[in-house]
Amino acid sequence: MKRIKFILFGFLLSLVVQSCGEKSTNNDDKLKSAPWEDIEAIAEGTTVNFMMWQGSTAINDYINNYVVPSVKGKYNINLQISGGQGPEIVQLVMGEKQADIEQGQVDMVWINGETFFQLRKVKGLWGPFVEQLPNASLINFEDSYISTDFQQPVNGMEAPWSINQFAIVYDFEKVPNPPKNIPELKNFIKEHPGTFTISNDFTGMTLLKSFMAELGGGPNVLDGAFDENKYKQLSQKLWKFINDNKQYFWKEGSTFPKEQSKMNQLYANGELLIAYGFNEGGIEDKVLTGLYPESTKGYAWSNGTIRNSNYLGILYNSPEKAGAMQVINFLLSPEAQLKKADAKGMDSNTVLAMDKLDTEWKDKFLDARKRQYGPTLKELEVNAIAEPAPEYMIRLYEDFRKNVIEN
């Protein structure tokens, strides 16, 4: 997912702070301690607006054809979906703050990482609310990949929805021995020029973070607060590696795909031999729909690939906070999480802890349809590394443009 540029964010942030200060736009604090029965009663009959990324057919099908009718039937909530991700969400919040809009356009959002960071900076999220959700008791918040979002404690300000890991994607019939570290990647692209590239989006920047960790000497080198000196040192190595070798990239490094969907298509038509993505590579649905060949596999970088969770938040000026809480609680229910985990559907790993489920639901998760093609989260966990602080991602976007694309 593409993210707002660092300079633009800083400029808009200063405007918001100057114009809005500490002003509160809604007085719904009682919901943070109200009995759940009261929240359910307030939520009934509301219209909840959900802004989310809509770049996946499987995700859209899950939301539109399962979640929307389910919350209508169970809670009489009209769930309306609008498209938008990191930049759009942050810009919406900043614009509404500047205009002193107390009843916003959007109630709940799908976020993580630097979007969480940016929204917290401008006090754009409402909460904490997660402890109020009955189904939050089924989540293991001692798991650091769930309780920490890009090195930031979640602290009840966003509810975990899915957990996944970044994976490298390849066709084992074409590439029997795919590269698993930077030296091997150098050799690979020289032997197979034009078959690798870096997407100028959230996914591509995530790959660069794995590269930076390797260049720094280990999987945990980027842990902790953002370190300016460390970033400068490692990013210089990163830009040197890319610029020294981009003549062997797709289109000789003269251009870089702006969307993950473009990367997927280039891999599907054979132009790229190496692709990558979250949700353990996002392989399953693409093989099942015929986009990817059945010989597609996924693996983790030797030094590690990033594992993270994604989350659901409620905006500070949501007019239907109780309704949003009810929808989010449903999305964390065993029923909704099981449906989302179906390998022939959304194929998304549950955030529910199996040892917190009763036997009936635990058995249903164990019996759920499993992946035939993509790797599982369990298979990649030995090579899992944590997301670094959000400033690394923000800086990589800007510096990739300056040091690689425009170089």
UniProtKB/TrEMBL annotation:
Signal peptide as annotated in the record: 1-19
SUPFAM superfamilies: Periplasmic binding protein-like II
Keyword Signal recorded: yes
A Pfam cross-reference name: SBP_bac_8
PROSITE patterns referenced in this protein's UniProt entry, alphabetically: PROKAR_LIPOPROTEIN (PS51257)
InterPro entries given in the database record: SBP (IPR006059), YnjB (IPR027020)
Alphabetical UniProt keywords: Signal
Keyword Repeat: no
Entries under PANTHER family matching the protein: PROTEIN YNJB (PTHR42779:SF1)
Protein name as catalogued: ABC transporter substrate-binding protein
Organism the protein comes from: Zobellia barbeyronii
